[in-house]
């Protein structure tokens, strides 16, 4: 049995073959959400909102220096849960993500992977920290929405439920009627791995570069691919080009 609790699965092919349902993180495995609307600029917009709200004590060195919007959201969740500020921060983030969805760039091989997973009888769902409204807008634009109908699980107004909290994965398992052992989570961040471990869902890391792979390996990911083509090849049973 491996660290994810899966017996008899060998590498990417084994994980994919055993999965009745594939849970996909959105920004990364499905698309580059901020390819045309950089997340660093959005982080600046969130910091501006903190300043406008007089919340300068939340503008720590870490918050001031980050381009990671989810770090800012988690900071607000930790210190201002349930406040008007938390609502406004989440609403601003959703606005920015909806704008980004219109210029998002598909991750290579993600679209054919989704088509092939469905064609081979597997269920698919999205489990993400992004707004479900932005996810659905992107999926409609790619003509993929029907494959995920009722199975897009993203950020709620309760920012405490962002991954690594397992909430969105649990919702995806519930909506698809899938046992954790029969699912597979594909994510590109240590928070995805942590959420998968918390639910008992096997995990496959997606790393578009060496830095991402090092982060995933460092967090304990046992299986990492550098291209979604490798996952597609596992579904079709054909060798991925090297």
Automatic annotation (TrEMBL):
Pfam families with a match to the protein in the record: Hydrolase (PF00702)
SUPFAM superfamilies, per database record: HAD-like (SSF56784)
Keywords: Hydrolase
An annotated Gene Ontology molecular function: phosphoglycolate phosphatase activity
InterPro entries on file: HAD-like_hydrolase_sf, HAD-like_sf, HAD_sf
PANTHER family: PHOSPHOGLYCOLATE PHOSPHATASE
Protein name from the UniProt record: HAD family hydrolase
